[in-house]
Design brief:
The protein has 256 residues and is mainly β. The chain is built from two helices and 15 strands.
């Protein structure tokens, strides 16, 4: 079945000194790499995900996929993922590939990813390139991302950039901030987003959070998604010239 709900996974894997092989429903390599430099760790409101997933059509989970991740060579890793031809539902991914090069140390994390997907009932390929970086300075982690995407929905490239980071004043409390911009001159897409949040760990599995976010659609005629809670089927969109503000409180439970 679909892995969209809660980004579920169901796969088989083999791990050895030669690397890791995975078959089945699993995370999209490019989506995982993007989260490394996502200033707000992929918040549903006020993050890069609304544009990158909603308009750019990057999916979080790949079904019936095969992937390989190499062992680390002084912090450097390479990975590749393939989706053999599967599924005929219009709009779903028919086949695709993902590649990634990453570098990781206790203080620096970098990832460069590329995706190519063919969706059912679409003639054009969906292409994407993603660069993410996270650099740690004691209690503060600076994060930045850049994404360039092309889809069958519009001509030209959709470019999204984001900067910000997370501050941990003491164990169990994290404050994050992210500023984002997305542009596509051909489709006249122009959006700006700002998000600020705080999260407190209550138990090993449970956290409480509060956040405020503001998204502005500066496009002249294009509606854009303003949150990623229902990705990829967005129910809430901002019309051209509209601005949305959101205050969110909630709990996050992490299954062990």
């Amino acid at each position: 079945g679909s892995g969209d709900f809660l980004n579920r996974q169901a796969n088989l894997f083999v791990k050895s000194i030669a690397g890791e092989f995975v078959a089945g429903t699993q995370p999209n390599l490019a989506f995982q790499g993007l989260l490394i430099g996502e200033p707000r760790s992929g918040s549903h409101f006020g993050s890069a995900l609304a544009m990158v997933m909603g308009t750019g059509e990057l999916n979080a989970v790949d079904e019936s996929a095969l992937s390989y991740r190499s062992p680390s060579f002084s912090g450097l890793k390479i990975a590749a993922q393939i989706i053999p031809e599967s599924g005929q539902t219009p709009g779903t991914i028919r086949r695709g590939t993902r590649t990634q090069v990453s570098y990781s140390t206790p203080l620096i994390n970098l990832a460069l990813s590329h995706t190519s997907s063919e969706r059912n009932a679409q003639s054009a390929l969906n292409l994407g390139s993603f660069l993410s970086a996270a650099v740690r300075f004691n209690e503060f982690t600076f994060k930045a991302l850049a994404a360039t995407q092309r889809t069958a929905a519009f001509q030209g490239a959709l470019t999204t950039v984001g900067v910000g980071g997370a501050y941990t004043p003491r164990q169990g409390i994290t404050i994050d901030l992210g500023v984002y911009a997305s542009e596509n001159s051909t489709a006249r897409i122009h959006s700006r987003s700002l998000g600020l949040g705080i999260q407190k760990t209550l138990t090993d599995e449970l956290s409480a959070f509060a956040q405020i976010a503001r998204v502005a659609n500066r496009s002249s005629s294009v509606a854009i998604p303003y949150h990623a809670a229902l990705a990829p089927d967005f129910a809430d969109r901002l019309l051209a010239g509209q601005t949305a503000s959101s205050l969110n409180l909630g709990l996050i439970y992490r299954f062990q």
